Amino acid sequence: EEAIFLRKKITLLRAFSLLIGSMVGSGIFISPKGVLKNSGSVGFSLVVWFACGLLSMFGALCYAELGTRITKSGGHYIYILETLGPLPSFLFLWAEFFAIRPANSAVVSLAFGRYMLEPFFAPCAAPVPAVKLVSLLGYYMVLTLNSWSVTWSARLQTALSIIKLLALALIIVPGMMLLAQGHTENFQDAFDRQSLVLDKLPLAFYAGMFAYSGWFQTSFVREELVRPERNIPLAVIVSVITVIVGYMLTNISYYTVLGTQDVLASPAVAVSFVQRAFKSLISVVPVLVALSCFGTMNGGIFTFSRTLFVASREGQWPPLFSMIHIRRHTPLPAVMLMFPLVTAMVCIGDIYHLMNFFSFSRWLFIGLATLGLIVHRHRHPELHSPFKVPLFVPVSFTIICLFTVAMSFYSDPVNISIGCTMVLSGFPVYYLIIHRQMSSRCRSPFYYLTHKLQLLLEVVQQEIKTY
Description:
This is Cystine/glutamate transporter. It comes from Pygoscelis adeliae. Pfam families: AA_permease_2. It is found in: Membrane. This protein has helices at about 10-25, 25-40, 40-70, 75-85, 85-120, 130-150, 150-180, 200-210, 230-255, 260-265, 270-275, 285-315, 330-335, 340-350, 350-380, 390-410, 415-425, 425-440, 445-455; strands at about 325, 460. About 70% of the residues lie in helices and about 0% in strands. The longest helix is centred in the N-terminal third of the chain and has 36 residues, at about 85-120. The protein is an all-alpha fold and about 475 residues long. The chain contains 19 helices and two strands. It has one domain (about 10-460): Amino acid/polyamine transporter I (Up-down Bundle), CATH 1.20.1740.
């Protein structure tokens, strides 16, 4: 009775909540350990946190301009496709589906499970099987919600964003109070050069950038945004500044209350902080942190399903995943596709190894996307963009991303080599299947299976293109 397409339901407030909810997740509660371990000292770790925030702002501004130039959803994928061509975009899609996104989701899910169970087992660590079980239950709940309703997913994201900011406030306020009282002993010799190891700095940046990751999320849902030319830049700038200030104050609070050895020894830094600062809230803060991770999972599923949706629409992914539920108006097949891979990675993975594993591929392709902005400007100088950043912003951001990716081979050669192999494994798939199918425009070999699944899931192709 009505056209089937993804509605424009993401307002400015929901865009802001999507960005805050995606950035403030497990990262600020687990990454301080990784940043400190690889930077060597309190002072250098704070420099890394600020540098990561500044770098995130540069990247977010680049993506804001790309979002006003290229009017399709899909984030990194569509930007690389439109600026650098189909091969690099498919390699991104291949690495994103098989490595980046499931590993990222597994990291956030495991953090959710760990913090959710922490109050029940403190002062002991929660059993690993129980953590993984709760992690999977949380992920499946978010998966179900995103399959059911776009509106309710967006409303949940708004509510959880408020909870995230409250969780940060509960850490910042007591830390600042102690600092004002003169408790600065943990900042003595903050810049100890003897503990600085330069070849480990890329891993410190990976951990810090993981905490900030999410500044690009509005680009994935561009077609569902209300007034995207205005709301994308506005939401990006306000949200990234908010998170930079919050993260710097949170880390200062951590170091005011906890020493470097306490941070390095803690499996859950926020819980150790609460145990030391005020025991009356020992059972509250971990739950707030877990809900924060829950919001990050929600934002990740919400946005990545749109990447698969757009890739399928562009002919680089099976056609089933460009279909929408006839009543719910959600990209149901694309939402459900990540289910098996995330389950496997949660069952077998470790947080910090997973973080290094997916960070290489993620920052390689983000660097290529901002390189694409430079290329797009050169090819289309006549194109008017309502939002434009100075050229040095995409140039410096691209150079830093690609340099960090190159340096990481020295820092963690095993995990980085696995990530590189995952990217390169997409070459034969592209030339044997995707390129041949797009050139001949032949019917998909899975046509009849797709038809049966379409009937089972009650999904159809989008009827109206909103871009």
